[in-house]
Amino acid sequence: ILLLIRNPKDVATSFYHFTNAMSPLPSYETWDDFFVAFMTKKMPWGCYFEYLSKWNKYADDENVMTITYEELKENPVLGVKNIAAFFGFSLTEKELQSVVERSSFQSMKKNSQKTHGAFGNILFRKGGISDWKNLFSEDQNEKMDKAFEEHIGRTKLGTKLKYEVYCKA
Predict the structure, then answer these.
(1) Please, what's the b/e burial string for 82-108 (b: 16 or more CB within 10 A of its CB; e: otherwise)?
(2) Alpha helices in 40-137 (DSSP H)
(3) Does the pLDDT at position 26 exceed 60?
(4) Cβ atoms of 12 and 144 closer than 8 Å
(5) Residue 151 has pLDDT above 70, yes or no
(6) pLDDT value of residue 166
(7) Which of 14, 24, 91, 128 could form a Cys-Cys staple with 95, CB 3.0–4.6 A?
(8) Which CATH number fits domain 2-168: 3.30.160.20, 3.40.190.10, 3.40.50.300, 3.40.50.170?
(9) Average pLDDT over residues 60-77
(10) Which has the higher per-residue pLDDT, 38 or 120?
């Protein structure tokens, strides 16, 4: 099992834009309204912290490889090499470069009309990291940090996310 996790602040930011673009989902007039819903577990897919907490039980399982979105953005070649090794695939240098290129956000966004139709524009927005800094107030940032620490801060997955997001930022 490949478990891809992401900074909860960017997850919230991405969900905000996604839910407002998808008519069947609840939309929010303001970021502040969305933030309250996100922090009070009123998301259609549940609470991200609870999701991470449940997956943390399997973090040491030899059949589970955890990688962060931030790791893949920082070094996609190393990420693909590690994923291939985990699944027992050996890739030539040419195959490795092809996978890295074809799985890049830019490539997937470019092909999203073919692969996902009109839904592609909703799924592939920016693909960056730290976009949360454009929406979060200082108070919201502190509340998210506190919730992170309370729910998963001392867990294996929490430690991995903290390292990727805070120590490398």
Answers:
(1) ebeeeeeeebeeeebeebbeeeebeeb
(2) 48-56, 69-74, 76-87, 93-102, 105-110, 112-116, 120-123
(3) yes
(4) yes
(5) yes
(6) 59
(7) 91
(8) 3.40.50.300
(9) 94
(10) 38
DSSP classification of residue 155: S
Contact 4, 82 (CB under 8 A): no
Q: How many CB atoms lie within 10 A of CB 168?
A: 10
Spell out where the chain has E strands: 2-5, 65-68
User: Averaging pLDDT over each range in 23-27, 70-74, 119-123, which range is the top one?
Assistant: 70-74
Residues 16 and 122 sit within 8 Å (Cβ to Cβ):
no
DSSP-derived 3-state class of residue 60:
coil
Dihedral angle computed from the Cα positions of residues 75, 80, 85 and 87, in that order, rounded to the nearest 10 degrees: 140
- Residue that has been written with the tokens 């801060």 in this structure: 153
- Give yes or no for residue 113 having a pLDDT over 90: no
User: What gap in Å lies between CA 125 and CA 18, rounded to an integer?
Assistant: 9
